Amino acid sequence: MEAGQILGTVISATGSWYEVATEGGTLNCRIRGRLRLKGVRSTNPVVVGDRVVVEPDDQSSVIVEIMPRRNYVIRRASNLSKESHIIAANIDHALLIVTLHSPATPREFVDRFLVTCEAYKIPLSIVLGKADTLVEEYAAEEEEFTAIYRDAGYEVLRISSITGEGIEHIRGMLTGRTTLVAGNSGVGKSTLIGTIAPDIEIRTGEISESHHKGKHTTTFSTMYSVGDGYIIDTPGIKGFGLIDIDDNELCRYFPEMMRLAPDCRFYNCTHTHEPDCAVLDAVKEGTVAWSRYESYLKILDEDDKYRK
Ligand SMILES: Nc1nc2c(ncn2[C@@H]2O[C@H](COP(=O)(O)OP(=O)(O)OP(=O)(O)O)[C@@H](O)[C@H]2O)c(=O)[nH]1
Ligand SMILES: [Mg+2]
Ligand SMILES: [Zn+2]
Question: Are residues 122 and 215 in the same domain?
């Protein structure tokens, strides 16, 4: 770092302006021309959570360097694109907010997000949102969902920003670390953050608005400080295209399948057609959930499409 330059953390990134929190306060910055981290191909060069070197200036401060990232959450920018988009970097923990209805989060979306967190070694908790709406008719579905992911090895929590259920627990999880909040649009990510930290000014979808319209309330990621930790609100993501994950490695990111793989006859078993495959046996017996296995197959399939 040269004289006059300071270190900071990117707390919001709109694409042209970046807010950087430094010891002396928050600076509004632009980025220096061709700045990007080596070896990372993404549509957004500087992302929320990045540690950066800034040249402060009264008029326009400039980000001149990005420090290496400890980890990041990345997805394919759009369905048919080869470009990728980084949601945030340097995360200690992720909360994936899932709602069973209004809106219903697709299982495949959940599984894709889990694969990414496994691949980048980001600890994760699954949070069933809007628990106040999980009335009797959803009880069986909730039980099934919870069992699948707990059996796979994930923590599954329940929260409601209306009754306050689970909120204290989540607040406790934030201490001393940076937590990413992710999930489809309308699942209540911003509402959760506003409930945890009422002093934060945060935009949420109006109750009267229908989230079935696919309207996105949060349009870019923002990091907020809560106690001695940080929480990152993200725009709702719809599809979650995976990037840089090898077919041969994919099963390592499904913990319940990875545990069985040593019992397959072939060491390089793909768990799709091989004889004496411990994973296929478990799927048949129902000890590995069909929906999880189906996601595994769909991800294998999709990646083939992109290689052609
Ligand atoms: N019943 C119920 N409704 C909730 C709860 N949390 C949020 N909502 C409602 O769900 C809608 C969407 O909430 P948001 O917090 O804006 O959702 P979001 O995930 O931030 O959405 P995007 O910013 O578009 O990604 C709003 O109408 C909220 O009032 C909850 O715990 N229970
Ligand atoms: Mg939001
Ligand atoms: Zn196998």
Answer: yes
Q: Which of 17, 34, 24 is nearest to 5 (CA)?
A: 24
Would the CA dihedral through 215, 217, 218, 220 be positive or negative? positive
pLDDT of residue 79: 62
238 domain-assigned = no
CB 120 within 8 Å of CB 138: no
- Which domain-ending residue is among 38, 66, 94? 66
Q: What is the pLDDT of residue 200?
A: 84
- Domain of 54, CATH number, reads 2.40.50.140
- Look at residue 37 in the predicted model and tell me its pLDDT: 73
What pLDDT was estimated at residue 308?
39
Starting from the CA of residue 193, give the closest ligand: 1
Tell me which residues have their CB closer than 6 angstroms to ligand 1: 129-130, 132-133, 160-162, 183, 185-191, 204-205, 207, 211, 216-218, 235-236
For ligand 2, the distance from its centroid to the CA atom of residue 35, given in whole angstroms, is 29
Which of 33-47, 104-118, 149-163, 172-186 is predicted with the least confidence, judged by mean pLDDT? 33-47
For residue 68, pLDDT over 60 is answered with: yes
CA distance 155 to 192: 18
- Residue with the larger pLDDT of the pair 209 and 84: 84
Q: What is the mean pLDDT of residues 118-134?
A: 96
Nearest to 260 by CA among 231, 236, 289: 289
Ligand closest to the CA atom of residue 205: 1
Which amino acid residue places its CA nearest to atom 5 of ligand 1?
130
Structural domain of 53:
6-66
